[in-house]
Amino acid sequence: MGHSKFGIAIVGLGLISKTHAAAYKQLPELVGEVVGCDIDPNARERFASEFQCRTLTDLQQVIDDPSIDIVDLILPHHLHYEAAMAVLDAGKHLIIEKPVAGTYREALAICDRARDAGVHFMVAENTRYIGAYVAVEKLLRSGAIGEVVHARTFLRSNEKEHLSQQGYWRTKFALGGGLVMDTGAHSFYLLKWLLGDFDNVVGSSTKVFPLDNEIEDTAEVQGRLKSGAHFSCGFTSVSEIPHSERLELYGTRGGILVDQMAEPVVKLFGGHQDFKGVPIDGVTFGPDAWHPGGWHYESVITEVTDYVQSLAEGRAPLIDSYDCAYAMRVVEAAYASIGSSKPVSLRESTVAGR
Predict the structure, then answer these.
(1) Are 172 and 165 in contact (CB under 8 A)?
(2) What is the rounded distance in angstroms from the CA atom of residue 354 to the CA atom of residue 340?
(3) How many CB atoms lie within 10 A of CB 192?
């Protein structure tokens, strides 16, 4: 590459870009210049002021800059595919925010192109780096609860202010908006990573807060995994309880509860008569999700750090980005079920889009 340190461009300077930039600043031995890129002059000005960096106005400037080795794409979902392909065709390394793209086919195509291009690629799916879920994976692999027969997830947030903004891209399905698209990608990736492929899904959604937009703010998706386990995933973007996640796993010999608003965050239960459970050490309680020390913030820092360190060390990142593409397959199946009010099978090789 001709560089002792990596030059990085963050393309799309919304909320999560600041956390990505903070992670790069913690890697001075590996990261050189960090550049911001956005079409919005106000976003560029704010980012440049906070991180004391230069900014660019469009992706082509990033691609044409020989000092930039890594492109960090944090764009509206409907822009992912074309932007990612342009970066990969230019031979630059790529980290792209979840969901990978607006459709399963596009997501799969991005992963395939990155593999064929021989660049360092990763989907920025912070779920893989949340300390509680890393602890859960270890428990499952050790057989701590036997065979999992039922899994439940619940993700809540409050997006009322954002979703009330006229023209906001997340309020339109055609631009990659939708609660199951944005939030479901996390839960479906989590279950794929921990428990394997999906067999079928049944979805339902509604709007419980009266906003003038087309997307759902509350949804439920349930069904079967190929292992035979039943699963249920709940989502809401209009919660008046702080942004958080919960996971419940029920096995043949015990269970695991994860709740980012509880201390301890992770507890292992040895059966239905184990009323106390065993707190799992090493998982930090950080309920203020979006700020330093919070479970979400710290997982993003760890995620970005793994990407850069894995590139420097010549190894694969911890996350399998194809699993993130697979999550989009489940998203599409969920929306197909919501639209038809019927179960949708994932046994076929492809799933039709919405």
Answers:
(1) no
(2) 10
(3) 20
Residue 340 CB coordination number (10 Å): 10
Secondary structure element (H or E) that encloses residue 97, with its range: strand 93-97
Inter-residue contact 7 to 68 (CB < 8 Å): yes
Q: Do 137 and 249 fall into the same domain?
A: yes
Rounded CA gap, 335 and 205, in Å?
9
Structure tokens at 174: 């055609």
Choosing from 93, 124, 155, the residue where a domain stops is 124
User: Rounded to the nearest 10 degrees, how much is the dihedral formed by the CA atoms of 43, 292, 71, 121?
Assistant: -150
If one counts every other C-beta atom within 10 angstroms of the C-beta of residue 5, the result is: 15
Kindly state whether residues 109 and 168 are assigned to the same domain.
no
- Whether 90 and 161 map to the same domain: the answer is no
- In order of 1, 46, 129, 165, 258, the CA distances from 161 in angstroms are 44, 21, 28, 7, 28
Mean pLDDT of 317-346: 97
Residue 167 pLDDT: 84
Residues 203 and 285 in one domain: yes
Residue type present at position 228: G
Tell me, yes or no, whether 147 and 282 share the same domain: yes
User: What tokens does 339 get?
Assistant: 């639209």
How far is the C-alpha of 344 from the C-alpha of 75, rounded, in Å?
30
Q: Quick one: 336 and 230 in the same domain?
A: yes
CA angle (332, 95, 102) in 5-degree steps:
20
Q: Flag whether pLDDT at 332 surpasses 70.
A: yes
Which domain covers residue 162, as residue numbers?
128-300+326-345
Look at the pTM and tell me if it is higher than 0.90.
Answer: yes
The residue type at 160:
K
**Residues in CB range of 51: below 8 A, 6 or more apart:** 21, 25, 34, 36
pLDDT tens, 269-287? 999 999 999 999 999 999 9
pLDDT digits (tens, 9 = 90+) for 130-189: 999 999 999 999 999 999 999 999 999 999 998 888 888 888 999 899 999 999 999 999
Residues 135 and 278 in one domain: yes
Q: How many domains does the chain have?
A: 2
pLDDT at residue 166, as a whole number: 85
